[in-house]
Every structure is written in structure tokens, then in C-alpha cells.
Amino acid sequence: MGNAVKLGVNIDHVATLRQARRDIDPDPIAAANVCRQAGADAIVCHLRQDRRHIQDKDLFALCKLKTDIHLEIAAVPQMVRLALKAKPDSVCIVPEHPKEITTQGGLDLAKPLPGLPAAIQAFKKAGIEVSLFIDPEASMVRAAKKLGADTIELCTTAYCEAEGKKKAKDELERLELAGYLAQELGLGLHAGHGLDYHNVQAVARIPHLSALNIGFSIVARAVFVGLKSAVAEMKHLIS
């Protein structure tokens, strides 16, 4: 058995499919309920500034559900205001670039990021847990602590894209070392981005890890086996 790692299921790509037709189906709220029934511990969504998948109304509807809602946003005033109004259980602040296909890596905390300290303080004041999405580097972990984050989410992209067993092992070690430092500093530890049914188990065994946030691979699998089965399969793999 692992560390009883929680599974956060990101339902963004259910909304991506809906937005392809600007229709009402498939409904992300219905998807969230199915995910919970299948064993998801939290529902994750990323309200992007370009609104390419989740919409404002989805966020407010999700936050009315009796389940943990974990919101990913950029640290810009409009998104911070929306989040404070919707009141998710937790927020993960991520970097965001207009033309990216998906998030390209962690926040670069080595340089001042306008709006980030204010956003962190606003969420903490509102009683919303704050996570920062960072690359697995000691300097980034320390900077997240200094900024007042409650939790860090380690970007697993480099591990997921590693070619060959040696490179994958090296990237896994980077994640583990960052995790040990987070524990030492009293930070909560999450991980995610690019994880799928073939590479998730090694990450799920990282010491002190409390949650994995996974979306695209689950929604892609759901096309073939259904959402309930796709979530249950992932939950089984990380248990």
C-alpha cells in the first residue's frame, strides 16, 4: 500500500469537449459528481483567462457541490476576485501564457511575480488554502515557503517526458528530494501534470505526498471505458 495519496480529478477537458460546440453537454458538474462517486477525493479545475474550457458559471456551480474543489488560476486581479467570490476549498496558483497548449512548467519564483504576494495573502485571509505550482527545485520550494504558501504542487512534466529509464529515475529523484524539503519546511505536498496510467505509480510512492492532481489522461481514458471506470482505475493505481 502507498501513502493513502488522495486523487484530485481535473475535469477541464470535459468542458473542452463541451466548448467545441458551445453546447450544454458534456456537463462538467455532472462529471464532477461521477468522479466523486468513483472515488475522487477532490475536483480540480483551471479557470483560464482565455476561458478555453471551464467557464465562470461552471466554477460557481462546482463550488456549491458538497465536495472539495481545488481551483487553478493565474495570479491576476480578475481571477483572484472571481476565486474569492466563488470560495473554492483551495487554490493553486499557476503560470499562464496565452498561446500555450497546456501549462509549460512551474512558477519562476526566482523573480518577482506581480500580484502573487497579494493573491496569496488575500486567499489566506479568506481561509482558502494556497498552493503554488513549481518545478522540483530546492530554491523554488524555499521561495514558496517564504511567500507564505500552505502547499506546493510539484510539476511532473520532466518526469513524464523523460526518455529512458535513467532519465526517468533522475527526474523521480528530483521530485523526491523536493518533497523531503517541503516536509522539512512544513509545506503540504501535491504533484501533477502529464501523469497517466503508465507512469503514475512511481510518483504516488513519493514520501510525504498527500495528493495527485490528474485530468487529461483520465478524461481521455473515459472516452473508451467511461468516466466512472477511468477514475476508479486511477484511484486503484495510486492506492
How does this model look, in words?
It is a single chain. The protein is 45% helix and 16% strand. The longest helix is centred in the last third of the chain and has 21 residues, at 165-185. By secondary structure, the chain is an alpha/beta fold. β2 (42-46), α3 and β3 (69-73) form a beta-alpha-beta unit.
In short:
It is built from 11 helices and 8 strands. With 239 residues, the protein is α/β, with parallel strands linked by helices.
Distance between the termini: 6 Å
Mean model confidence by pLDDT: 96
Query: How much β-strand is present in the residues?
Result: 15-25%
CATH superfamily membership? Aldolase class I
Structural class: alpha/beta
Low-confidence stretches: none
- Helical amount: 40-55%
Give the count of structural domains: 1
Tally of separate helices: 11
Number of strands: 8
The CATH topology assignment is TIM Barrel
Q: Strands of the largest sheet, in order across it?
A: 1-2-3-4-5-6-7-8
**Rounded Rg:** 17 Å
Topology:
Blueprint lengths: L5 E5 L1 H8 L8 H10 L4 E5 L9 H7 L6 E5 L3 H10 L3 E4 L22 H10 L3 E6 L3 H10 L3 E5 L1 H4 L4 H21 L2 E5 L7 H5 L6 E4 L1 H10 L1 H12 L1
Helix pairs in contact: 2-11, 6-8, 10-11
